[in-house]
Write a structure and sequence with these properties.
By secondary structure, the protein is an alpha/beta fold. 39% of the residues lie in helices and 13% in strands. The protein binds zinc ion (2 copies). One zinc ion binds next to loops.
């Protein structure tokens, strides 16, 4: 949420509370007006709040409200809102966040029925308690129920693997709409985060005059279930996520009862559309990709260079025409460099467009005043104009990426040439060894590792030592049949609760590759978890630590070992830490991966293949790896065959 939205929301809530508490209606109205004024601003309210006079110039903002805004910008609080909130149960305030539930209804429900929370309201609706409330018809009760559901879904973050295909579907559809020049998704999705709040779709049209039909085409997409905002340049919808992923194939502990995708993701996701002019594509893409922290750093950097960075471009600082006359040069006060329009650099706009008769400080953002941007068409252009190399979206998190002097060569999907964690029908996979190997070959890999479960994973059909020995023979037989790819015989061996492995050293030594993973006792305390993983890492037969924490996105926190110790030990013993690419795992997660890279660890990106389509999860693993600054050199799956085999042999 932008700061403007946050301020607008708080002012609106003050108005609602004043209404609820029966204050003078005029006070509520002035807060409502101010809320709308702030919402409609095209310039950051934090900028304006530096000078109260600029706030007061905005239609709808008086001295009292200006003070509230300044207080919020400076402290993150609005004391008036806090005071009002104290007079009303917190649950009633929450109730008013439900769209369509205004102060009147909230007050009615609270005072006549004692309903003071959203869960209580839900219960009352289900049990038909509201049917006798005056002025509340059956229809409005039904609408209320629907709104509550929407709010609840909106609070759930959706896993990357569900959001990304939906976003791609919208982008493809928008690219086919007449007058659309470019379409892309932005936001935390483009940064590859493991869960997504909502999807941001950016679209460029050849002429904004065509914005209306383009926005309409967006809202008419088959996946859309509700239209929340229907504007020409800005629209918001909720899109169904059902019927996208049927069965989820994966380890036994992911693959549970049906309907689990809904369980982890809710029924729908919010999709926001913004329409833009082509010349600000790059700047807008940057702005909406974020992160917020990264963008703040960029804006600071722009200011230091005497520029302004907005979602429309990077602009040279110009003197906004002064209150009385645009011709007179401004006197001292302006903190901009005293650069009269005559002396302005050739790139800066010389004359603002004709202005409205009203003599007012021009608070419009630079692009509306006709200032020509220095950069904005592409992201590269903007970064370079700020004296920076292009920064890949995945690392725009304000984790020292602005110190980079060149674009890092992070691992890419096309770099991956080996899958080192895969199951066959011998344990809980769906493919035979041969089928698995052929699929890996078809996908261009030089190596595939067969790593079925070990004996303790009974539910997953784990192999006894005898069955493992037979399985090794079967791998040898498959090697003779499938050419063009190297098949490794291996195991995904359980790390037992105390850190010992499920097969003894003699057995493990027979295998080309050993992936050691925790599957049980995932609630043990951090100290025990640390000891357990350290013991597995120091086992000389282990090449890869598989899904190190066992977490499941939105489902299970998994182990929380001391990651500092884990990554140091893994670097020392040259054990690659796995990023399990299944979108429900993404384990290691991004921050742990970055810690591993900083400690000098090797990283494996594996699909943990149980069925053919699991190979498609690779891109989620690669996104997570990029978020952790993994380069090609550090990723064992990106090595050529000789280097990979030498690494595996070095542990035998
Ligand atoms: Zn596993
Ligand atoms: Zn596995």
């Amino acid at each position: 949420m932008s700061l403007n939205d946050a301020v607008a929301q708080r002012l609106a809530m003050i108005a609602k509370l004043q209404d609820l508490l029966g204050f003078d209606r005029f006070r509520a109205i002035s807060n409502e007006r101010a809320s709308r004024a702030v919402e409609g601003l095209s310039v950051d309210v934090a900028e304006l709040a530096k000078d109260k006079k600029r706030l007061l110039d905005i239609d709808g903002i008086g001295p009292k409200i200006a003070d509230k805004i300044i207080e919020f910008v400076e402290t993150g609080r609005m004391s008036e809102l806090d005071e009002l909130s104290q007079q009303v149960p917190a649950g009633v305030v929450k109730m008013m966040e439900i769209p369509g539930l205004g102060p009147k209804t909230a007050s009615l429900l609270w005072k006549t029925k004692g309903i003071d929370s959203v869960p209580r309201l839900k219960q009352a609706i289900e049990q038909g308690e509201l049917l006798d409330v005056p002025r509340l018809g059956e229809k409005s009760i039904a609408r209320l129920r629907e709104s509550i559901e929407l709010v609840e879904q909106g609070q759930k973050r959706v896993p990357l693997g569900i959001a990304l295909p939906i976003a791609e579907e919208f982008v493809r559809a928008m690219e086919r709409v007449p007058h659309v020049k470019r379409a892309a998704y932005a936001g935390s999705l483009r940064r590859g985060k493991d869960t997504i709040g909502d999807i941001d779709i950016l679209v460029c049209v050849d002429d904004l005059a065509h914005a209306g039909p383009v926005a309409e085409a967006f809202r008419a997409q088959p996946r859309v279930t509700h239209v929340l905002v229907a504007g020409d340049t800005r629209s918001s919808v909720r899109a169904a996520i059902r019927n996208l992923h049927g069965a989820v194939s994966a380890d036994a502990d992911i693959r549970t009862k049906g309907g689990e995708v809904e369980d982890v993701a809710g029924h729908s996701i919010q999709v926001d559309l913004r329409l833009l002019p082509i010349e600000s594509w790059g700047a807008a893409l940057m702005y909406f990709t974020g992160s917020k922290e990264h963008n703040i750093r960029l804006r600071e950097r722009a200011l230091k260079r005497g520029c302004t960075l907005t979602d429309y471009g990077l602009f040279p600082e110009d003197d906004a025409p002064a209150k009385d006359t645009a011709a007179e040069p401004k006197s001292s006060k302006s903190k901009s460099k005293s650069k009269g329009s005559a002396k302005a650099s050739p790139k800066a706009a010389k004359t603002p467009p004709p202005k409205k008769a009203a003599a007012q400080t021009d608070d419009r953002p630079p692009h509306e005043r006709g200032v020509k941007p220095i950069a904005g068409k592409t992201e590269e252009e903007v970064y370079h104009a700020l004296g920076l190399p292009y920064i890949p979206p995945e690392i725009r998190e304000d984790r020292s990426e602005l110190d980079l002097t060149e674009t890092p060569r992070l691992v890419e999907l096309g770099d991956i040439q080996a899958e080192l964690h895969a199951h066959t029908t011998a344990s809980d996979g769906a493919l035979s060894i041969e089928e698995l190997a052929r699929e890996a070959h078809r996908r261009g890999f030089h190596t595939i590792a067969v790593t079925d479960h070990s004996k303790s994973s009974a539910i997953a059909g784990g192999l006894t030592v005898d069955r493992l020995l037979e399985h090794i023979d079967a791998v040898h037989a498959a090697r003779a049949k499938v050419k063009g790819i190297h098949i490794l015989e291996g195991s995904e061996v359980d790390i037992l609760a105390d850190g010992t492995l499920d097969y003894d050293g003699k057995t493990l030594a027979k295998l080309d590759i050993v992936v050691a993973s925790p599957h049980t006792a995932l609630k043990q305390d951090p100290e025990a978890a640390t000891k357990r993983l350290l013991k597995a890492i120091s086992n000389p037969h282990v090449h890869i630590l598989g899904h190190p924490t066992g977490r499941l996105v939105n489902r299970r926190p998994g182990l929380s070992p001391d990651m500092g110790q884990i990554v140091r030990a893994a670097a020392e013993h040259r054990v690659a830490l796995e990023i399990n690419a299944h979108w429900m795992r993404l384990d290691l997660r991004d921050t742990h991966t970055k810690a591993a890279i900083d400690a000098g660890c090797l990283i494996a990106i594996d699909c943990d293949v149980h069925a053919r389509e699991d190979f498609d999860n690779l891109r989620y693993g690669v996104l997570t790896a990029r978020r952790g600054w993994v380069t090609r050199e550090r990723c064992v799956n990106a090595w050529d065959q000789a280097k990979l085999l030498a690494f595996l042999k070095s542990k035998r």
